[in-house]
Amino acid sequence: MTDLTRLSAADLAEKLRHREVTSVEATQAYLDRIAAVDGSVHAYLHVNADEALATARDVDARRAAGEELHPLAGVPIAVKDVVVTQGMPSTAGSKILEGWVPPYDATLVEKIREAGLPILGKTNMDEFAMGSSTEHSAYGNTHNPWDLERIPGGSGGGSAAAVAAFTAPLAIGTDTGGSIRQPGAVTGTVGVKPTYGGVSRYGLIALASSLDQAGPVTRTVLDSALLHELIGGHDPRDSTSIPEPLPPLVEAAKQGALGDLSGVKVGVVSQLQGEGYQAGVQTRFEESLDLLRQAGAEVVEVSCPHFEYALAAYYLILPAEASSNLAKFDGMRFGLRVEPEEGPVTAERVMAATRGAGFGDEVKRRVILGTYALSAGYYDAYYGSAQKVRTLIQRDFDEAFAQVDVLVSPTAPTTAFKLGEKLDDPLAMYLNDVATIPANLAGIPGISVPNGLSDDGLPVGFQVLAPAKADDRLYRVGAALESALEKSWGGPLLDRAPELG
Ligand code: GLN
What is one GO biological process annotated to this record (predicted)? Predict the structure, then answer.
């Protein structure tokens, strides 16, 4: 029998629909694979075996009874631990939430459950989604399946590593500055950051509310489109949710896979290439541009002059919002509670002791930075200026999209670095997101598609950005690139990853 864990979600869904396999068989195959290799990858913080199998049995029974089911019914999925799941631990990678079991589901989880996707478990991440390597998790490192000594990207390294290690066919990530796309790039997986407001934020443990966006992590562009259509759409419980239907994403992916991009205008962002980008990353990028041209696209260069300031603006806006969002972790409401070692047990001292013990260094660094940037004396100089830069970046995008249909760049400047290599250098860590952050500041959608291996034999990602609410363009261009690349490789990139276990 074929190894069920190697199938794309779309192919597995087809086999389930035709009753060639059952969801119990598929779910069990994934649970077996987790048992075999997750000891070395550590993508999961929590494995939800019993409940996943119960969901699978239920879906199989309903299918056998002839019930009309969602196209992805019975296909297992993993969920980043920053998304709340009723009855299942949700720690956001932090000690401060250790042992907290949410009493409700995020909207996207509700949709996943209603559609009958067995939830395999919760995936590892940088604490409160702050980081680019998953090394800031309070629960240990996740290892890149391409080289276990290397980082899987971050903050959603667990979701990307699970998909790359064939321990989940689909996963959910969140992207505040690149945490879906950058892990996608360094693990050879597809990651999509939808338009801000395109997928409900209800039930995400907030990092920076004006930037956070949940989205799909998968092995193929079509799988991302299928998952995006499932989790997206208007949600009255999220006041920033877009009150309109999604554009047709699956259709766009299928059309793109036919390989014809004639009439599509592609803009290469001058500021997001060249200096600071690894040579192999740049070479693969240029080769991919050639493939887009061969598919009929017109490729031009576009300048976005304010992108130079995006990283600096982001690292003021994000900490400012995070310092406010994280104020609720005070030892009174959720998870950890620590009493002061000596002296009176006042509310304020319990809060200080709890936050001191429960937050890691990166979280403390950003809370301090954020409260400083928001303080009365410095608000205008830091937070206020950063918001102005944000507007300039949005205008850069508006002007660029007046000239082209999509913008493209390498997703990340380098391939996966070694565990520990950048841990003591926060600025070096922040630079990983130089190409992904502008999209979050502007609220526009982006995809990372694996586009080959760099000179060091590690995967590289190609980023496509589109105007807000035009997520379908990501899928059309992404699928066209993917199909051209796979033709040239003779199969998916992940087939070239080393065998684990
Ligand atoms: N790496 C970026 C940061 O540390 C992005 C994080 C994210 O997208 N959650 O903030």
Answer: translation
pLDDT value at residue 1: 56
Distance 136 CA to ligand 1 centre (A): 11
**pLDDT over 90 (residue 52):** yes
Which of the listed residues 94, 151, 155 should we mutate to test ligand 1's pocket, taking the one with most ligand atoms within 8 A of CB? 155
SS (H, E, C) 10-25: HHHHHHHHCCCCCHHH
- Which residues contact residue 50 at a Cβ distance below 8 angstroms, ignoring those fewer than 6 apart? none
Reported as type and span, the H/E element at residue 235 is none
d(Cα 139, Cα 125) in Å, to the nearest integer? 9
Write out residues with Cβ below 6 Å of ligand 1. Answer: 129-132, 155, 175-179, 207, 318, 433
pTM over 0.85: yes
Give the C-alpha separation, 2 to 215, whole Å. 29
Per the residue annotation, which of 8, 15, 23, 80 is the catalytic one? 80
Q: Residue 353: what residue type?
A: A
Task: Name residue, tokens 């993993």.
Answer: 78
Residues in a beta bridge with 432: none
254 is known as an active-site residue = no
Strand order in the sheet with 77-80: 44-47, 119-123, 77-80, 170-174, 214-218, 190-193, 446-453, 459-465, 406-410, 265-269, 298-302
Whether the per-residue pLDDT at 302 is higher than 70: the answer is: yes
Question: Which ligand 1 atom is at minimum distance from the Cα of 130?
Answer: 4
Ordered by where they begin, the domains of the chain are 4-307+391-496 (3.90.1300.10)
